[in-house]
Amino acid sequence: MRIGLPEIWTFGSIIFTIVFMFVYFGVIAK
Amino acid sequence: MSNEAWVWTLVLLYWAYCIYWGIRGAIVSKTASGYMIGGRQIPMTVFILAATATSFSGWTFIGHPGLIWRDGLAYAFASFYVLTIPITGTWFAKRQWLLGKRYGFITPGDMYSYYYGSEVMRWLVVIVAFLYSSFYSAVQLIASGSLFHWVTGVPVITGSILLAAVVVFYVAAGGIRSIAWVDCLQCILLILGIIVLGVFVLHSAGGWDFLSQKINALDEKYLTVPGVIQFTANKTIWTGMMILTYMFSLMGIQASPAFTMWSFSNKNPRPFPWQQAIASTFFVGFALFFFTAIQGMGGLVVGAELGISSDRDLVPKLMHAYLPGFWLAFVTVGALAAMQSTAAPYIGTGSTILARDVYFRYIRPRAGHAEQIWMSRVFAVLIATVAMVISIKSAAALVMLGGLATAFGTLMYVALLGVCYGWPIKGVGAVAGLIAGIATVIITDRNVSPWSETFGFLWTIHSAGWGLGVGLVVALVFSKLFPDSPEIEARRKEIRDWLDDIDRPSASQKAWRRAMWVVVPVWYIFAIGPGVVLGNHGFSFLGFPPLWSWQIVWWLIGIVMMWALCFKAGLSFLGEAQIQRAEKDTRIVVHEVAPAIAGGSDAAPRAGQGGRA
Question: Which residues in chain B have their CB less than 8 angstroms from residue A14's CB?
Fold first, then answer.
């Protein structure tokens, strides 16, 4: 499958969210 | 600086931006279509932000966290409207743009009356548009006046009128171009405002460990969905079926007449998938699933301490308690932006629909560009004035009528399924379906129905669900009984043939679409339907209660689903060659002005269409 901007944004959003949850709720706002 | 000084400073800057774009739009927009649909030239980024801001109103900012506080995580499933609102655009926006481009439609009434060969359709759309532009918008304007009162002490009525005046100015002056540019700023303020308030609540209330521990210890009624369905009447119980059918109601937002005009306004359909999958589902979802939920559930933990006694008080009291000077002003402007970004396009499109579908169509068919623009302005002022007067006289009636608007928007699915996908719905069927749907919504709406004791949200199914079901059945049955004339059928066949040819899915898109016939229903059942009960005690991570964890996971799956639908299945994506073809394949049947006024340069209008010249 070709990886273009839609794929980068879509799966980037999901990876960002998962990282954000661990960093923000697990560390920063703990 | 004091809190009030910060608020006034930021509000004045915000107003200056609004007024600037009002004046700029007025200077640029010299033709009817330029004013009403931005000359079909609204740029990509502007549409992405503007359509997102329009979709999410002041309700998202103030009302939604309030109801999470009142009803708990079962209600928080409503946050999935970050997906179900734009999914309507996924089904319909691209094809509406194609039709607008080819036939020169300016209003949704133009499109529906041409396709169904019925002027009654035009009038039904005018009624739905009027509900949105007046009552739904007035709800927003009054809410902004209330918030302004909370923060600055300005009386509610005075504040509402002041805020409405600014909105009406830039809407009336510059038309949809001004609305779109102001909406861009409003979209950013809306999302950031929600996040900022959530962050302050979380940190001020003691951090996540403390908050999540308290939330997990709340009464079961705040943490679970009370079953799949309950055979009751006149009760709003957030069962799986109620969540599902409430989402149907909100799907009406992008089916509303205003969004048909947004579709027509675009330079090309490139922004559609980005608005639907990324701006709305991801960005607004990010704000809602974490930070709105923190406001609502956090409010349950600190409610007694802050003296929160009603869902309407939640956000103002959280703001008052936790936000320091600048941030209080920032979030206040964010909330005002959320309210006004919804009111403005509905007032704008409502006024142009009245100017085109009533004034130009029936009263002054020879009206030129300037006259149509000025009449739109007059209608914008009139709509806002009538709405404000009603809202001041009877706030209860206003909320009731405003609430009907989104359910009526859902009913437009009946007409759109015929126009965009060739469902076997004929002229009489479409009219009968819409009328039956409207009647059903009124009968089954708990807040409106004279028989709400018996039929109000019957079996915990929202009035939009009943209305859409009845509307579709009646439309299909009447279409069988009352066929259209050969002339209308021929017209419809020409539309269908062209649409199916230019928007023919590729082999890969067909394969994705086949998969989506399974994926989408599964997602609906487990993310927002009967299957949500499995989330009551499913899994949990990072201290989120099980139902909240369930929502986050299904939201992330929803982002992937939207990507697959919009881009891979090509439902809202159009290739470069198709866009180029759409630019050339025009067959204008609706004229901005009567051809004699335009210098006879337009093709002759079809009988009963456009300027009736």
Answer: 556, 559-560
